[in-house]
Amino acid sequence: MTALPEADPPFRAPRWSVLPAPQAVRVFMQPLPQPAWGDWNEALAPALGLPALPTPQWLHRLSGQATAPPWCSAYAGHQFGVWAGVLGDGRAHTLGCLHTEQGPQEIQLKGAGLTPFSRMGDGRAVLRSSVREYLCSEALAGLGIPTTRALALVRSPLPVQRETRETAAIVTRVAPSFIRFGHFEHLSHHGHRDALQQLFSLVLEDFFPTCAAQAQPALAMLHQVIERTARLMAYWQCVGFCHGVMNTDNMSILGLTLDYGPFGFLEAYDARHLCNHSDRGGRYAYDQQPLMGWWNCGALASALQPLIRDEQAIENALERFEPLYERNLLEGFRAKLGWQSAQEEDALLIQQLLALMQRDGVDFTGFFRALSAQEPGLHRAARLHAPAWVGVDSKDPDWDRWLRAYGRRSAQEPSHPEQQREAMLRVNPKYVLRNHLAQEVIEAAQGGDFRALHQLRQVLQHPFEEHPAWDHWAQPAAPGSPRLCVSCSS
User: Per the CB 3.0–4.6 Å rule, which of 37, 147, 333, 475 could disulfide with 257?
Assistant: First the structure.
C-alpha cells in the first residue's frame, strides 16, 4: 500500500502510556491488505474535529498503517466469576488521544493484529462481529446510554478463521478512556503497588477530580464508580439490553458500556433471557445483570483495597449499590409509563406489568412504544391500541385489570395527556438493534453491500423518531425465522 501523508489532527499519547512496561507497551500493527470503507460515522466525526466525509488519509490510518507504534495495555479480570489472570489488549491498539470540546478522546483500533497480550489469538476481528459492535455502540449512544462510540468500520478480503472462514475488519472505537476494572485488578493482584497508585492518580485527575479533595480519594472514587455502574445497569434494564459477558475486564471505570460481543435486546420479554449461548449457567441473564454489576464493583473494591485500607468503608460503599440501582430503575420505568410524580403504588404496578409481559411473551420495545403512541387521553381511558406482533390481548381480564389500574394512576399526573404522550415518546424507542436486523446487514455486507449498514446506523442514532421508510425495522423477526445463536466470537 502506497504511504499517504498523516491525516490531521495529530494524536497525542494516552495518559496511561506513562505506566511502566509491561503494563503499557508500544507495538506496530499489522495493516489490513486491500482495505476499503465499510462505513464512516459522519455524525460523530465532526465532534472529534475530523472531516464529515471519509478521506483516503483516514482509511490509511484506520486500516492499521502507522508511522509510529500505538499503545497496548495489560489488564486482568474475573471471567464468569473465575480469576482469569493476565488478559490485556489482545487485539486493540490505541492510536492516541484527540483533544475535543468534550475533552480528550482515545482512538482505538480493534482487529489490527497481534499484540503482546494476544495469547493464543490472532489479533484480528471478523466483519461479522465488527458490524455488530459498530452498530450497537451507536445504538446505545442514540438511546442516551453511556457507551464507547464507533467512528469507522474498515473491511478487507483478508481471510480469518473462526467457526468458519470469514473476512477481516477493524472497528475504530472512541471513548474518553478504555480503562477497565481489570486494569486495577491486574496491578493489585500482582503487587504492582507503585503502578496501581500511578494509574489511580491519573484516572482521579482526569475523570474524578472532585474526589481528590476528599479525606480518602480512592474511597471517594469507588463511591462514584459504584454510582455510575448502578445507573448503567438501570439504563440497560429499562431498554431491555443484555450485555452477555459482564466479566470484570469488560467493565469501564467510567461507567460506559464496553465491549460488544454476544449482546442482544429483549424481544419477547423473558427475565431469564440469555443472549450468550456459551453462558450455560445463566450468570449473565437479563435479570442477573444488576447483581453482576454489584459483584464486579466488589472485585474493583478489592483491587483498590491497598489504596483504601478500610474494609468497613468498602463494605459501606458496596451496600449503596442496590438502593442506587433500585432508585434509578424505578425512575426509568416511571418515565417509560409517563409518570413524572412518585406514588407508593408505582413499584407494584411495574412488577405486575412485567409479570404479564413475561407470561405472554410481550415484545418489550414494541409494548412501551405502543403505549407511548396512543392518542391523547387513551392513557387515562386505559385502552391500548397495539399491533398484533406486540403480543398484548387487551380483552384478557388480567390485561384489562392492569390497564385500568394504569389509567387510574396516570390520571393522578398533573401534566396534560398530550404532554405525557410526548414525554413517553422521548424515552421509549421505536427502534433497537434486534438480532435479525444485525444479521441481515451482516449478510449484505459479506456480499459487498454496505448500504443497509449505513442506513440502519443512521436510524439507530435517532431511535425515538419516526422513520416511515423503515417501519419494518421496528418489528421482530417474522414468525418461523431461525433463532440466532450468539457467542463470544460474534
Answer: 147
